[in-house]
Amino acid sequence: MKAFLCVAPILGAALAASSGDFTVLSMNVAGLPAILNSNDVPGDKTTNAKLIGSFFAQHNYSLIHAQEDFNYHAAIYSTDTHPFRTATSGGVPFGSGLNTLSNHPWLDFRRVKWDTCSDASSSDCLTPKGFTFMRLALSTSSTVSTYIDVYNLHADAGTLDADNTARQHNINQVASYISTWSAGNPVLVLGDFNSRYSRTADTAIRALLSSPSTSLSDPWLLLARGTAVPPTAESLCANPSATNYCETVDKVFFRSSPLLTLTPTAYEYVGGRFLQPSGDVLSDHNPVLVNFTYAAGVSLQQSNLHGGPHGNWFSDVPVLSGVRAGVKVIAITLRGGSRVDSVGVTLSEGTVLRHGGSGGTAVTLTLGVGEFWTEGEMCQAQKGGRTRVFYIGGRTSSGKEVQAGTKTGECVVYSAPRGWQILGFLGQDGDEIDQLGFVYGKQ
């Protein structure tokens, strides 16, 4: 699978809050060139795109995922005011039409093209449709930080057998990516799935919902239908829709993690908020709006992440979520030289957690009874055009210290909240440590 990396915005001074609420909007903005598809929407497409952008700014949704944002992208951005926005990947036939507008910064952004597409019903192979990935920072601080892995997708269209097969491949590809790159993390998946539960031959979204590798839930089912069971009877929506009970192909899925609890509190089709002065719609899709509350985990939490988004994602959260209360770190083992090669801990119940390569010199600090790892320092710099972790230092509740690597001018100190301890890690690695954060557990 080929991932296309884009430069992510630098994390700003996000509010240091471990709980709160935010709104997410998924909208197919009907941005195909008029000569290819009018989308059955009256009016000039550039004018309509500017109106869409102005409504994005007016309603100030926390996170907006746009699909079919092709040839009128600049018009949307010209009237929008969100501080964090993805750069376009191009119009037809070069771009995917997937973009994000956000009030929150992110650490990483990737564009991934579908491995399979079908032209059976329409020209789905004309553009590099697929999905995007970003690690969204809801809040960051010197203690607890909160992140959500967010996906935006546009699946294959049509209802012929070849379309259904391609769409199932699309969803399987996303599920596989979530399993690898979002292990241990809360997740949001938004987009134009071109799929409905009521289509018996179309298994895509039902497969995503039931996949043990993703463990996702649908807020439309929970809030608009009052059940977790997908419907089998078709209920199509008008545009704009006066009811949330009907089903569209535009979906929002979510999951919590031990690090962060997500709770959907409101679900709404908001096509009525995106109308032309004449009362006509601006898109042939009903935009989907969901409100979530979030709260940092009660047994596990995390620090901010330091370093660069390179290497393979790892997380000790799945392991640590299964250990008994009262477990502590009894030994810290770090390897380093010019940079940090590996990090590891041994827990009091015998589990060893280790990440990175085998280079550098190893140093080990053994903790005493009643002693906890409470503070960590990290420094980053560039190596071969990539940001890596050059230094890590640990300090215990008794003042003992351990360190590896080389200090640089870009260093941060993360402290476990009062009554908590550093128990493990999350981040990205290869032969060395590219990105690193700490996982906290209660003392």
From TrEMBL:
| Domain spans labelled Jacalin-type lectin | 311-442
GO cellular component, alphabetical, reads: cytoplasm
Q: Which UniProt keywords apply?
A: Endonuclease, Exonuclease, Hydrolase, Nuclease, Signal
* GO MF annotation, one: phosphatase activity
Q: Does the keyword S-adenosyl-L-methionine apply?
A: no
Superkingdom of the source? Eukaryota
Q: Which residues form the signal peptide?
A: 1-20
- Identify the Pfam families for this entry: Exo_endo_phos2, Jacalin
Please indicate if the UniProt record lists Hydrolase as a keyword: yes
One GO term under biological process is: phosphatidylinositol dephosphorylation
Q: What is this protein called?
A: Endonuclease exonuclease phosphatase family protein
